[in-house]
Amino acid sequence: MLGKKFYMFTVFLFILAISVSYRHDEADAAQQKSDYYSWFEKLSRIVNLVDQVYVEDFDKDKVMEGAVEGLLKELDPHSYYISPEKQKSEEEDFNGEFGGIGIEFEIKDKYLTVITAIPETPSDELGLQPGDRIVKIDGESAFDITTEQVFKRLKGPLGSNVNITISREGVDKLLEYTIQRAAIPIKSVIAQCMVDNQTGFVKINRFAKKTAEELKEALILLKAQGMQRLVLDLRNNPGGLMDQAVEIVDMFLSGGKKIVYTKGRISQFNEEYFSSSETEKENCPLIILIDAGSASASEIVSGSLQDNDRAYIIGAKSFGKGLVQRPFPLGDGSVVRITIARYYTPTGRLIQRPYDKGITNYYLDRFRNEDDLTEKEKFEKDSMKKANTYYTLNKNRVVYGGGGITPDSIVLYDPTSRIIEDLYRKRVFSDFAINYFNHHKSSLPSWSNDFDKFRAVFNIDESIKSDFISLCEKSGIKITDKEINKDEREKDVDYYTIEEFDKDFHEISVDLKYHIGKQFFNDISLYPRVKYEDDKHVKVALDMFDKIDMMNE
To answer: Most buried in the list 59, 297, 336, 501, measured by CB within 10 Å?
Structure first.
């Protein structure tokens, strides 16, 4: 059995080696073929030895998959193997639809717990509520379920039924639901609103099949509300489909402008993308927010519009993911994605950040600030910056290469305090919001159907603060009026003084208001309208609109 699997594996490697057709000198080609066979023979001996003498039985499929993954890992950080199961899930994600019931959930105390029912989905129509525990799926226990198992058991063919059993706080008996699976829209535009009487705000969290369409719809609605300028938030957006990035850039550029180009070792993978003269253009002033989590398609959008002097970029240097992968199906539903080219912005800046220091440093270095660098590293960084100076295409402004997109104005995040990190880590915000909703759902507050009223009148008063502190203690975060000696501290409990809590109470109250609002409203404008006044990047953007004159072509 293992011999057959190894034969298939070696065939895969050989196909991988020759799948891209390009010319070689005959001698070089013969030598390369000889080298491959030498390695196949060596690997065959190793696999046979392991099969014969290894100390215990082992998962042969897992070993072979690991060998493939190890091969690809040596190439670059973004070439990788996708199993049949993962490939199917990935296709569903990027297509923007799958057959499911429509809930946001988390595994809490080993129970599958509803955070919220997604609006206009089967779960929303049947009245599933925040805090509901799904204890059975199709008659089988859902206790101690994994996230992977949740997707496997709740997803299915469109129109098929799934039976769930729910335990609800305040209800003595278990509740039975039969839910017909439906196409669940996976939105890319996760927030949109007017932050003042002329500035629109749109946040995109990834680039999927319908992202450009969603953005167009959002802009139509915002312009109807008086939008004259736009803040486009691409922070923590890891990218996605390149064609969606190109289409979005095209919305803001007049015809014939270069958007992005790719260049690889094989000339057939070299491509150039230009803006169209046929599409309707958005002429409003534009500021884009990015950070270290903005990658790939996010960098194409921000870098292209920066190079063309069409957008002003604010935030931190982006991730620097500029390698082009192409999927090669392997016949059994699995896919290997191999890097075939690199992305360049219109001025010739390479988006990809160097990865020669190893995978760990590649992912961790993006979060390092100037203060973390040694004097030698700062000197090397300054030298690299000067060596990678480029000029925008219309106004000859200086922009920088060297990997990632460097903003026009650097705005870094303030460090998150340890207590707020612990509150999120132990899910205290979301748990409190669910409890608050369940407590008030029978006699709804006066603002429960009016988001503007909620935003204006709802505040975290002393009563809510006291209840929140009580839940903190139940969740393993103790707020005390004195320092607790190390010897007196309980295991797995985090201790903070009331002074430490009060120091961060403003930020805590904003986050708490947002989570409570999410339970009552599910409004796409909730996040920015509750939090933008405390969002440093948005405040800088609003000030910057009045200080720059290069926003329009």
So the answer is: 297
